# Entry
Amino acid sequence: MGKNKEKKSTLKTVLMITIPILIVGLVVGGFFLKDYLDLKKPIDEIWGQTYYLYLKDVKENNKAKEAELPTDMKNAKINFYEFKSVKDPVMTITYEQDVINKENKQVEKEQHTNIYYIKDESVNTLVYYGKTTVEFLYNIEDKEYDYYIHRYDEDSDTYSSLSKQVESYTNGPTNCSNEEGTEENCLEALKDYTFKKDEKSSITDVNGNEISIPKFDETFVKVETEDKSIDYNLELSEKELKKEITAGVENYQPQENIITEKVKSAIEETIKQVDAKHEEMKKAEEEVKKKEEEEKAKKEAEELAKGYAIGPYRLKYGTYKNLPMDNISITITLSPNGKCHYSGKDPSAGTSNINTDCTYTQTKAMYYGVMTYFLKMNFKSGGSTSWQMTKSNAFNNQWLSFEYKG
# Structure
């Protein structure tokens, strides 16, 4: 009996020790099994699984260079975007990189963006060198929402449609995939929008105030979007990478979820403000033009009032008659633009009357040892005559003297 009790006590002790260990082992094993199964389970979206396997391959097979990802990149973020003209969502990796400014020798952060798209079930890369970012914009002229790659430097900003760029690689350039497509259409579809820093349309109104609008605001409206990016770096473990990509897939927003009625209303209001600014500028331009025309007319009237400049003298436009002591009657009318009319005795013959249109010019020549200005008339009926200038609003020759009559 004593031995049986001892055996039962020993078995009970063994069971008390073994069973918890087995339970812990089963729990731990189940945990690792679940982890293993979760890791091997594909991401729900095929495109998400494709990008995950691509980045997993980049890590495991040291393909960062092929993926255009520098090993010194910092603060890398992944986003997934919908391009309506492309079948699968596009993945972007935005990162910062330290560079040395050649002018001040200071270390500065530059932001870069790589574009990754799926074609024939494989991931392809589209790289824009230089400082870049991705922005969701409304194109006022095209009346379309689209994602644009924004390239910028100290002097300018350039925007290119990402959907059209990617589409050109996946489906062929927009407007070029059929027989009607032309090179001109292709270039138009893939055109860039470049704005110099602080470039604007402007006009100065009649009061000297500038009315202006940035060129960017005439072309685009920026759509405020929620940050749905996920963290990324080349050192993520397989588990961490899958977790991040899964979160990115879950965060993914089609454009219809972004372009809400609230967004549409905000865009419409912004466009109204742009149209109002254009209308204000147009009105100001018309007022400036009207003022310029009035000032020009005033100046021309003043010049007309002064008359024809001939050397240091002036001849008012209007009628000139010879003095009564000449015992003949001659009337000369000077009009602007070098036109005139002569009526009276022929100045060359003096025996016949002429009534003819004429033109006038000015000349100068030595006259009795003095440089003298002359008013020369060419008659439409033939012949010409010249009159000496000695004072304003009068002219003469050896026999006749004319004065302004009005």
Remarks:
- The longest helix spans residues 261-306.
- Confidence is low (pLDDT under 50) at residues 177-188.
- The longest strand covers residues 353-367.
- The CA atoms of residues 334 and 340 lie 5 Å apart.
